[in-house]
Fold each of these.
Amino acid sequence: MDMAFLSEFPSIEFSRPLFASVLGNTALSMVPGVSGAGPSPKKTVFTPILDAEMITTGAITSMPLKPNTPTGCPTPAVITRAMATLTGIEPVFVNAGLFNPPTVPCIDVYGAPGGDPREGDAVPAARDLLTAGERVGRILSRCADFLVLGECVPGGTTTALCVLRALGYEARVSSSFVENPVHLKEEICEYVLEKVEREGATDALDVVRIGGDPMMPVAAGIASTFEGTLVFAGGTQMLAVDAVLKGLGRSMVPLATTEYVRTDASANFEEAVAAVGAKAYYVDPDFGTIGDAGIGRYCEGEVKEGMGAGGAMFLARVMGYSAEEIRSAILSTVISFR
Amino acid sequence: MDMAFLSEFPSIEFSRPLFASVLGNTALSMVPGVSGAGPSPKKTVFTPILDAEMITTGAITSMPLKPNTPTGCPTPAVITRAMATLTGIEPVFVNAGLFNPPTVPCIDVYGAPGGDPREGDAVPAARDLLTAGERVGRILSRCADFLVLGECVPGGTTTALCVLRALGYEARVSSSFVENPVHLKEEICEYVLEKVEREGATDALDVVRIGGDPMMPVAAGIASTFEGTLVFAGGTQMLAVDAVLKGLGRSMVPLATTEYVRTDASANFEEAVAAVGAKAYYVDPDFGTIGDAGIGRYCEGEVKEGMGAGGAMFLARVMGYSAEEIRSAILSTVISFR
């Protein structure tokens, strides 16, 4: 079991590990069919806030909700919460741009949520957000020598698709839907690609401005200044940040994500990672045998990843917790939210 | 010189020092005559934002302003900036509740600015802000083992007066005006004391709710959970936080402030410190001989303290910088903003 839990066991020396996550919104998540991260399209924008609240306090009290998908599948934030409890690391949240104020403290860069790229620039302040992210990276450098940095941006696989394609990578993107709404995403992406071409935009930050989301420049900024060892927690969305970093001529960051992202048949994650020239670690928690039908559905392609859940498990394992300790912590957290 | 720079040299062991400051607004600063911290009463609310911007970036670019008072005296934030440059410590800002969004990243607790206590509860969410502050204290515990925590709340000496009096201390309060507007402050304070009595409020958080400002519960929360050595940077306002901590049955925190606060004839700072049972370090930078007429006016009672300037100098000295290095860093920063 332990051999297969991580695709590769990294050699990282550290004394002060930390998990952080960049929260953001894009208006795209409210377009019906784009995001499954919420009980309804309109409510997807609250998911980063509710996830951060649940991970920080252990419960969602600001709305009458349980941290489960509409189909009864535990959200990835439940996994992240379980890892926070197991490792004793209280995650730090970075607010890159949300429609509503969070209910727990965040490092805030005072960014705006991303717009629908079909209606205008998605992230007009991309350049300022990169600078702000660089400031946050310097703050986080004081707090940790090993940082696992995730994201929570409902609709973010679509902005990731737009940015990866516009930067020249043949990506198909994963989704939290079992039925990946490929056509709608492709349509939005077509629009962004045409605008990028029309403007002759080649700078990675211009691509983010046209079709990205606010998480991307903030995460890229953090990666640019963080002084310790950094690992991105996430799949396609963090890969898009790596593509932005590469476009800016800056160092890319290794990814840690779940096996369910790698095996998503509607996407081509490993190929995209190779195309970008990034490196990925895969975590296989074998949820099919964990003893909960809801989380078992991750194996069938439901949810797969989010709120840095893969990276949170990766961090726990690298800190020395065994696969069984990790699985057992997840199961008891899942049960507590049933 | 060095002997007199600090009233007492503390024995503190640390390896990761940090300076942080809690920003907040109270509607009282917009009442003409309450606060001198800004070019006009209405504009006082921007001072925390502009100070944080200047300290972080080295310049104020979001408004056409120099970091000098209307009378041409360098603001205390210039001193804090000079100490950040000298020590290489980039300050961390905590947004406790402001009318406008900051222009640099802050740890945000998503609080509201304080209201005018004559129009209703000043800080209705005092209890939630204490909890949020406790979360921030846990985050900062990861970043530092020695934290100097200041504040920037225009109008905050008036809320400090209200809270200290309501908690039973015979405080008179310092002010950034040469002519301390004692009567107006006393009038507001009378109102708060009457309301506290009418409600029979004895709990320190109820007193903050009725007549305090959002900085107070956030700073008290940070003090409650910070695991390393903590020193409050400031005069009367941080003393009010100590009084709140004492009222809550929690440990008080030593203060570091300027000699100009101690010798303010319109206040009685040392007596108030003794009454609360707190401890204070005084920093005497001897600005009269530093070589700048504007900052020399601190000796004549103008400005005196703010944005944790006293504590920032205290931190630099405790880190091993000499009094002359500190004075010289301040002078060159002051000159750069002339």
Amino acid sequence: MVSPELRQRVAAELPHWAVEGEELAGTWRFDDFAGALAAAVTVGMLAERANHHPDLVIGWGRLMVRLTSHDVGGPTGRDVDLALAIQARIGRPPQ
Amino acid sequence: MVSPELRQRVAAELPHWAVEGEELAGTWRFDDFAGALAAAVTVGMLAERANHHPDLVIGWGRLMVRLTSHDVGGPTGRDVDLALAIQARIGRPPQ
């Protein structure tokens, strides 16, 4: 369940992210596998600090971050906050 | 396309792995997110050395490894070899 307020916040603050089902998802491209893995570790550090953990899908030159709040069954403000922190740390929005 | 020979080798040598579509897949459980991320980095190092890169799906307490040979459109002996190296390094077969 994704509230209209959450959708508005994503559209305004995270225009390169997508609400897919119950998840807030963003994908980045990298030059190789090592770049994607390094970014996954960076995201993992932020997740650990926030005590809020996304699913990460690593492929060759690709990292997908999938955020949700399992207790609510959909993304919340906490996911938006972590998404903002992730793209700030990676240094660019998802593609 | 998965050859009968490959299926036999997986059944004999990798009984805890599954052939799913065009991929050879195994999932491990861990105590927390950090354990899963650390295992993903370990797998990434083996992949880099082999110059053969799986997709990795990291979740809280969970790592899925998905191996295929894109040039052939399915798992090959190269994927079996890497799967064996991965489970040896992690120290236990997938669950």
